[in-house]
Each structure stands twice: as C-alpha cells, then as structure tokens.
Design a protein that fits this description.
Strand content: under 5%
Shape: elongated
Number of helices: 13
Structural class: mainly alpha
Order of helices and strands: HHHHHHHHHHHHH
C-alpha cells in the first residue's frame, strides 16, 4: 500500500481496542464494586440482622418451648373435636374455651389423679419395708432362701441397715420437696400450655396462613411440610395411646394372675404412666415385685420382674416404633433414634419434637430432590 494515502492506513490502535483489554461496559450498567455496594452489602447486612433477630427470638422464647410444643400437639390432636364444637357455636372464643375444657378433662385430669397415688404408694412401701426390716420378718424370709440367704447375711455384716433406712427416708423427703417444686413449675407450664392452646384453636387458620407466607416454599411445598407435621403428631400421639393401652392390659393381666389387689386399677395407672414421657409401668410393677420379695414369694416376684421387663417394657420399645413408623412410612431405626434423642435433647416434650424434626427434615430433602429432578428435566 501507498504510505502517503491516509485512507489506506489501518485505524490506529487505542487502549480499549488492544489485545486482552476488557471492552467497555454498556451504558448505564453498574460496575462490579457498585453492584456489590448497591445490592450485595445491603443483602448481607439484612441477612446478618435477620439471623441475629431470630437468634434473640429463640433465646426469648426458649423458656416457653415446652408449653408451645405441648399446645401444638394438643391442638393437632384436638382439632377434629374443636371443629365439631365450632360448627355448633357462633363465637370462636367460646368454642375454643369449650374445646380447651374437654381436652383438659381427657388429658390432664388422669395425670393429676395418678401422681398422688404414686406418691402415696411410694411412702406406704417405704413404711412397710422399714417395718419388715425392723421386726426381723425380712431377715427370716431371706435366711430361709437357699441362694439369697448367704448373700443377705454377708450384706448384713457389711451394712448398717438402720443407717440405710435413714438415708432412704431422707432421700424420699428430698424427692418429696423436689416434687413440690416440680409441681409448681408444672403448674406454670400447664397454665401456659392452656393459654397457647386456646389461641392455637381459635386462630388456627390465621396462624397457618401466616406461617405459609413466611416459609420460602411454593404453596404446594408448604402444604406438604405442614401436612407432614400434622401426620407425625397424630401418629405419635395415637401410637403412644395404643401402646399405653397394650402395656396397661399386659401389666394388669399379670397382677390379676398373681392375685395382687386392685389389679385393674393399677392397669389403668400403668397405662396413664406409659403415656407420660419419662415415666412408665416400672413405677408400678417394680415396687410390687419388691413387696412380693418381702413376703417371701420369690417365684411370683421373679415372674413379675421378668414379665415387666421382657414383655411390658419391650411392648413400648418395639411395638411403638413399628406402629408409628408404618403410619409415617419411616424405618424403625431412625424413628427410634428420633424418639430417644428428642427426649434427651428437649426433655419430655422431645417425645413429639424428635419425630416431627425428623419428618420435616425428610420432607425438605424430598422437596430438594424434586426440584433437582425438575431442573434436570428442564
């Protein structure tokens, strides 16, 4: 080309057009730092503030977790009853109050009646044991036994029975004072549970609508998670009631077979204790077996111990996970872990919370799996 012809020369290279240079951003597009300052930093600050507020809310609500969980479980179980009552009453508050009264009679009154009977029986058993030991009747009964006689004689030489009885009496006294304090705490929690249950029944639809709006899920997904919570609570409660009835019948049948007094009354007590977490039929059949030993009826005592441990006890540990797991379509092993772990972490209310947490976690994982499958299909 002719160098004198300017039109033949190539266009001079500019900084923006050099190799490796980044082209100019379109007009009006924010820079990377501007985008972070305008969008990323406020979003991060909002996330930190939200997490901090939620953590503080949890700390504030932590003393009420037990009452809230019990109220939620009772609201789920008692909702069919409340729906029938609300259909006949015009005022929602009156319907909720009536439902609350019926639920209290069905669930609270039996427990209140059982606890004094247990305390009275424990004190009566202690007085009976002390009388038998001080009178020498227990020593004579054990001395006549060919296997336990030498063992008991060796223990008598090494132990001061009077001191042991005094320590046992002091322990019962301390347990009695602890029971009084726990009963006060239980009364407060019971009042809070009733308060929360009233509003859970009266404002159920409003609370569920607000919860659905807060969940970061599609409406169908939110309904699925809430339905999982409902089914888990129903299965847990009704499964526990079924197993409690079985345990009460098994324990009462053995009491009747051995000729113990008030066999079917104690069957009802064992059934109620089976429903209450952290308690159970051993509070009834273990002292009965001990009293049979004091009477020298070793065969009946051993039979009651074996029956209570191997039959009545395993009915709860084996039958309950099978019944609930079949309804929820969960394997027995993770359900049993959720039950025991829930009680260990959350206390008595973990009996409901553990399975609910497990079921909700599995439902959320299933939602993630379904979304991933839709993305692959798209």
């Amino acid at each position: 080309m002719d160098a004198s012809n300017p039109s033949a020369d190539p266009a001079p290279a500019t900084d923006a057009g050099e190799a490796g240079a980044v082209p100019d951003a379109p007009a009006g597009a924010p820079a990377a730092s501007g985008r972070w300052l305008r969008q990323g930093l406020p979003d991060l600050a909002l996330l930190v503030l939200t997490l901090g507020a939620l953590a503080l809310c949890f700390l504030i609500a932590r003393p009420f977790v037990t009452s809230l969980a019990w109220a939620m479980a009772l609201a789920v179980v008692g909702w069919p009853l409340h729906r029938r009552i609300a259909a006949r009453l015009r005022w929602p508050a009156l319907a909720a109050a009536c439902s609350l009264g019926v639920i209290a009679v069905l669930f609270v009154v039996p427990s209140v009646l059982v606890v004094p009977s247990i305390v009275d029986e424990a004190m009566g058993g202690y007085r009976l044991v002390r009388t038998r030991i001080e009178s020498g009747a227990w020593n004579d009964a054990l001395a006549r036994h060919p296997l336990l006689g030498p063992v008991w004689e060796g223990l008598r030489q090494r132990l001061d029975l009077g001191d042991v009885l005094q320590q046992a009496g002091a322990l019962l006294t301390s347990l009695g004072s602890l029971a009084v304090r726990l009963s006060f705490i239980g009364t407060v929690e019971l009042a809070l549970t009733a308060f929360f249950l009233f509003y859970f029944l009266r404002d159920r639809d409003t609370l569920l609508a607000g919860l659905r709006s807060l969940l970061p899920l599609a409406p169908a997904e939110a309904d699925r998670v809430l339905g999982t919570v409902h089914d888990t609570v129903i299965a847990t409660v009704y499964g526990k009631v079924l197993v409690a009835v079985v345990q009460g019948l098994l324990g009462g049948a053995m009491f009747w077979w051995l000729g113990l007094p008030a066999a079917w009354f104690w069957a009802i007590v064992m059934a109620v204790l089976s429903i209450i977490p952290l308690l159970g039929p051993p509070l009834v059949w273990a002292p009965a077996a001990l009293l049979l030993m004091f009477e020298g009826q070793w065969g009946q005592a051993v039979l009651l111990l074996v029956w209570g441990t191997a039959v009545v006890g395993l009915a709860d540990n084996l039958l309950y996970p099978i019944v609930v797991g079949r309804y929820l379509r969960l394997h027995t092993v993770p359900l049993l872990i959720a039950l025991i772990g829930g009680v260990v972490v959350f206390g008595a209310v973990g009996f409901f919370v553990g399975p609910v947490v497990l079921a909700v976690a599995l439902a959320l994982l299933e939602i993630w799996r379904a979304r991933a499958a839709d993305d692959r299909a798209g």
